[in-house]
Design goal:
255 residues; 4-stranded parallel beta sheet; 3-stranded mixed beta sheet; 12 strands
Length: 255
């Protein structure tokens, strides 16, 4: 999270002061609290612009124009729930309070999408024949078929990179040169890609046994090279760790 204390103001703060804070911290929001640190309202840059247009006065106190019923989240909620509040309400930030309405944090859109680099290996299985898609796969591996103007495998890779992953292993078997020539060692994508070639098909997940022994001591994410998903990968890791299980499997009912 950002240093939320830097965007807190009192209800008597003049709009000129609030505007300076919003501009300096670049979060487009100020949080109004009382003397005990309780949340009593919010002010956005849009609120200030509207006040200027209507009154032309920057000496108005925050309490006169603040939103007295802002959307807020309890600190017992999960990042998944924070994300839902942001998305459903189409807002940029959510004040986080405890059970006594004391402000304890601020969750922003930037917090949700800004990814920290992770050392988790990502194992992408891209060795299948794509038999059911012939003749499209006669000369092209299924993961390299274009969907949305680029290979499926490239979209998967970019999704993981955006979430902070940099350590990739591709298992290949059918037409491996097509895949390796396109992605190389991953340098053009700002990541590392290593290839595990199956001399003969090892079945679903069989290539896991070919991974090196010196992998980082962190959960491995394994995915088929033809799966397009909007799954939040950071939430997946968080859920896996919080549940303490040996493995987490993502499934979806389909008829």
């Amino acid at each position: 999270m950002y240093n939320w204390e830097k965007v807190t103001v009192s209800q008597d703060a003049k709009l000129l002061e609030v505007l300076a804070i919003i501009d300096k911290e670049a979060l487009r929001i100020a949080i109004v609290i009382d003397g005990k640190g309780r949340l009593i309202g919010t002010l956005t840059d849009g609120d200030i612009r509207r006040t200027l247009l209507e009154q032309g006065n920057l000496n108005v106190p925050a309490k006169d124009i603040m939103n007295r019923a802002p959307i807020k989240a309890l600190n017992t909620m999960s990042p998944v729930e924070f994300d839902a509040l942001l998305r459903v309400n189409n807002i940029l930030a959510i004040p986080i309070v405890d059970e006594n309405n004391i402000l304890v944090g601020l969750h922003t859109v930037q917090d949700h999408y800004q990814s920290k680099i992770k050392d988790n290996p990502v194992f992408i299985m891209a060795g299948g024949f794509g038999t059911r898609l012939r003749p499209l796969t006669d000369t092209c591996p299924k993961p390299m078929l274009n969907v949305g103007g680029k290979p499926i495998l490239e979209t998967i890779l970019e999704t993981f990179i955006e979430a902070g992953f940099r350590n990739f292993y591709f298992s290949t078997h059918y037409l491996p040169d097509v895949i390796e020539e396109h992605f190389g060692d991953g340098g053009n994508y700002g990541c590392s890609i290593k290839y595990i070639h199956e001399e003969k098909p090892l079945g679903t997940g069989g290539a896991l046994g070919l991974l090196p022994d010196d992998l980082p001591n962190s959960p491995i994410i394994m995915i088929n090279g033809d799966v397009l998903t909007k799954l939040n990968l950071n939430h997946l890791l968080e859920d896996h760790r919080s549940k303490g299980g040996i493995a987490t499997m993502c499934v979806k009912q389909h008829q």
